[in-house]
Design goal:
The protein is of the alpha/beta class. It contains 7 helices and 6 strands. The protein has one domain (about 1-169): Isochorismatase-like (Rossmann fold, 3-Layer(aba) Sandwich). The model has no long low-confidence stretch (mean pLDDT about 95).
Length: about 170
C-alpha cells in the first residue's frame, strides 16, 4: 500500500500569517495528488502544525515570533478542498510528528510519499523521521507539491533529503 502524508497544508502557511506565493501556487497540484491517491485507494494522512495562545513564550515562538496555526483559529484549519473529508490528522506540536511515525508502525505499507509545507522545516523533518524509522521502505517527496520558506531553502531541503536516500521527484 502507498501512503500519502500531506504536511501542514494549513491556511496560515498557504495565504495567511506565514503564507507565500509559492505555497499558494502548489495548492492545485496538492489537490490533484490527493485525488490520485483517492482513486487507487491509497492511505491519506494529514499533519497540522498546532500551537496555543502561549506560542510567543515557547522556544519556537521566541525564534519565530509570528503567531501561526493557533488551535481554534482559521489559520490552524486545512482548507476543505485539500482535506476532502479525510479524517486521519495528526496535530503536531513540533516540526516532526512522532505520533505519525508510531501510527505508521501499525500500517502495512510499501511506500510513503510526502507533500506540503514547509519543505525546509516540517516536510524534511517528517521525511527524515520516517526514513530513519523505516530504512528499508521507499520514502519520497514530490517537490512540485511542496514549498519552502524561500525557494533557496526549499532547494536546500530537497538536496538534504536526496543525500539521505529519500526519493525526490
Amino acid at each position: 500500500m502507498k501512503v500519502l502524508v500531506v504536511v501542514d497544508m494549513q491556511n496560515d502557511f498557504i495565504d495567511a500569517a506565514l503564507g507565500t506565493k509559492e505555497a499558494e501556487a502548489i495548492v492545485p497540484s496538492v489537490i490533484e495528488k490527493i485525488k490520485k491517491y483517492e482513486a487507487y485507494g491509497g492511505l491519506i494522512i494529514y499533519t497540522k502544525d498546532t500551537h496555543f495562545d502561549d506560542y510567543l513564550s515557547t522556544r519556537e515562538g521566541r525564534h519565530l515570533p509570528v503567531c501561526h496555526c493557533i488551535k481554534g483559529t482559521p489559520g490552524h484549519d486545512i482548507p476543505d478542498e485539500i482535506l476532502r473529508g479525510h479524517d486521519i490528522i495528526f496535530e503536531k506540536l513540533t516540526f516532526g510528528s512522532v505520533e505519525l511515525v508510531d501510527y505508521l508502525k501499525g500500517v502495512d505499507f510499501d511506500e510513503v510519499e510526502l507533500i506540503g509545507l514547509c519543505t525546509d522545516i516540517c516536510v524534511v523533518s517528517n521525511a527524515l523521521l520516517i526514513k530513519a524509522t523505516f530504512p528499508e521502505k521507499e520514502v519520497s517527496v514530490d517537490s512540485a507539491c511542496c514549498a519552502g520558506v524561500t525557494p533557496d531553502t526549499h532547494n536546500a531541503a530537497l538536496t538534504t533529503m536526496r543525500m539521505c536516500q529519500i526519493n525526490v521527484v
